Amino acid sequence: MWAANTRGPVAVPGTYQVKLMASGETKTQSVVIRKNPMLTNVTDADLQAEFQLASQIRDKVSEAHQAVIRIRAVKDQVKDRIDRAQKAKAPKIGASGDVLVRKLTEVEGEIYQYRNQSSQDPLNFPIRLNNKIAALQGVVESADSRPTEQSSVVFKELSAQLQAQLDKLDALMKTDVPAFNKLLASSKLEPVVEKPAAGKE
To answer: Which end of the chain, N or C, is less packed with Cβ atoms under 10 Å?
Structure first.
């Protein structure tokens, strides 16, 4: 990512439990995180608001990345069926599959800049939604204080843009993929299926 990462939000002051499990044994220890005493103008509520927005940002980045994983899993299957269709001499499947892959790639490209391979590539290929949202976390946590109104506004705008792409993806899964599967069935090829995301089975 460019000026962003995927680390979790900074924990707020409070008492936490640290658990260590090794060799069949479990040890638990209480840990207290205290607010920097120099932050005289910052309340616990301010830090909680910062944590809440940072957590929402983290969840949106995860949502974006899950969508990319979802897209790539389907694209891999479509490309496999295209290869099989060529062997079965079914050109309609190949043409339809190419269109479907292109549509999926368009959505993927709005969410994630797949052209970037090196740290300097974003100079040529602008960052996409996942990177923009993740970079916002750095802004929110750049100071121990309540997030600015501007940060909340930007988060809402980026979230709306992401949702628009997720809606496009859902539409493709509900219409284009079933239509492609009908073509596959006519050539007795197995359908493209969505596999549940990790942890959602």
So the answer is: C
